[in-house]
Amino acid sequence: MQQKGGDGLFKNNSSKKITLFKKNISAWMIMLPSILLFAFFVWAPLFENIRLSLYDAQGIRTIKFVGFENYIRVFSHPSFWPAFRNTFYYIFWSLLLGFWIPIIIASLITETLYFKGLFRVGVYFPNILPGLASVMLWGFFFRPGKTGVLNILLDKIGIEPFTWLTTPGWTIPLIVLTLTWKAAGSTALIYMAAISNINQDLYEAATIDGASPFKRFLHIMLPSILSLGKTLLILQIIAVFQILYEPLVMTNGGPNNASISIMQLVYKYAFQDYNYPMAAALSVLICIVLVALTLLYFKVTKNVDDAN
Question: How far apart are CA 186 and CA 183, in angstroms?
Fold first, then answer.
């Protein structure tokens, strides 16, 4: 009897597994094309990039295995540490400007009683423009000398022209301002969608109690979008860490490497020096840093959530 019971239990478990497999097979078949495309376009180039970083090469044709020599060359390159430092400057200014401005825009439009649709279209309009076109537009706006649009406007009120993009202390904040103008509208719409899900009874109760718009923002709106803000924060850090064409077009990394980014250095290795192994090595280092930042972020936010 015990043997029969054991066989019945085994058959029962087997039938459950078969049933579960049949239920999941359609889901796996739907996911299979995406998995194959992801493996082909992401994992295969990633592993090939790691392999290339360990070789000496002519173009992309590997010649001999050199180990970590390309990584040593990257670290000893005179432009590496300025580019690495500047990249974190970009992140700092983007968090100071680009992270809070969309939240402020979303809260102001939410508190607006009339023409909300018009304001939404207005803040989203810069996202319609091609990225390169917006960068060139702001490049003309901040051009040094008397031909820059901003200097022309300042000259009308008697202020001398200023060398905006050729002053080292101003280049990174101005480039980040360009980024913020381009991307803040779409992020603000995401925040507005989250704010629309907040229970309106909370706003009505706060209004009856005499809470100001700032207090409603601080005690109702901000806590409600906190989890969304965490996600967008890490996505913003990852995106800004890979900034490339903005400093490339506006300043070409100058003056004197004051605005060069780590991705621009990858571009320089690959398409100016044609040193693909060094470009691959630096790309691997960027990937490691981004993974470390992501893990650190989730560790910190998990500790904060557990403390709360």
Answer: 6
Q: E strands within the chain? A: 55-58, 61-65
How is residue 269 written in tokens? Answer: 């290795």
Q: Distance (Å, rounded) from C-alpha 230 to C-alpha 294?
A: 11
Q: Which of 73-77, 98-102, 217-221 is least confident?
A: 217-221
- C-alpha separations of 248 from 132, 139, 200, 245, 264 in Å: 10, 11, 46, 5, 7
d(CA 181, CA 138): 10
Other C-beta atoms lying within 10 Å of the C-beta of residue 150: 18
Residue 168 CB burial class (10 angstroms; 0-12, 13-18, ≥19): middle
Q: Tell me the torsion sign for CA atoms 236, 126, 247, 47.
A: positive
* Greater model confidence, 176 or 201: 176
CB 236 within 8 A of CB 228: no
> What pLDDT, in 10s, does the model give residues 76-108?
888 889 998 998 899 899 888 888 888 888 888
Token pair recorded at residue 91: 């992140």
Angle between helices 226-241 and 80-93 (to 10 degrees): 150
- Residue closest to 250 by CA, chosen among 181, 156, 153, 159: 181
